[in-house]
Amino acid sequence: MTIYDDCVDCIKNQSVRVANAINADAKLRAEMISTVEEMSKTFSFLQTPPEIAADVYAKMAQIANKSDLYDEVKEHFTKNALSFVPFLEEKLLKTSDKLLIATKIAVAGNVIDLAAQVAFDLKEEIEKIFDTDFTHNDFDKFTNALSHAKSILIIGDNVGEHIFDYLFIKTLKELYPNAAFFYMVRGKPIINDVTMKEAKEAGFDKLCNLVDSGVNTPGFAYSRANERSKELFDSVDLVISKGMGNFESLSPTHRKNVCFLLKVKCNVVANFLEKEVGDIICKMV
Predict the structure, then answer these.
(1) How confident is the model at residue 142 (pLDDT cuts 50, 70, 90)?
(2) Cβ-count burial of 196 within 10 angstroms (0-12 exposed, 13-18 middle, 19+ buried)?
């Protein structure tokens, strides 16, 4: 999906968030905000929000002389997510529907998003997610696709959320032991998206096949991916796409059997899906 006017304002506002996150002094703060404001005048409405964000964040990183703008924040999110693991593992142990609970866990983690229009409290989301229905509910179709899939690609989204993805994939491996699982991450630091660094620290390289997409966008932009990632995306039986950035980048997509799992966190995506901000989505295409 390409950008709307609201996306332009959202991306401009992210310069303020970055300045706050890195404790920029007045001079650096003003330079970052004014630069993004100037860039916004030439945003292409033929591009997706993640493609626009890639250029904006690259420029802000250059100005701040900081390769990973959110490195310290990502460490905080990871520690916070890890604190919920014992509770979530207990939830999985006691449930009679492991797949549904694991899927809800994966979606709950999607609230960790520094680029979102609205912020959600992770603890609050975890407390209510298991009693919340998918407003777009293709869970039965998803279950059927999983039962027939021999190769499954999960496209990761954000740091902190990846801890919940780990539990999700661990459960999928238990339920579908004959399937091959792949977890795809961003090619370089962009916003708070998960990269090889955080995925390896969490042990994904021992859990499943870990793949660097090569993209510099906060969403899987197929045209910017490396050849290995394109081949994998095209050839697996099922793709599970996590989060809004991946949804924005892959709507539309050229392949079938893609399941989008996300929390709706902005009005543009809400209107596109004809849902409300705060809804949770399980959508098969």
Answers:
(1) very high
(2) middle
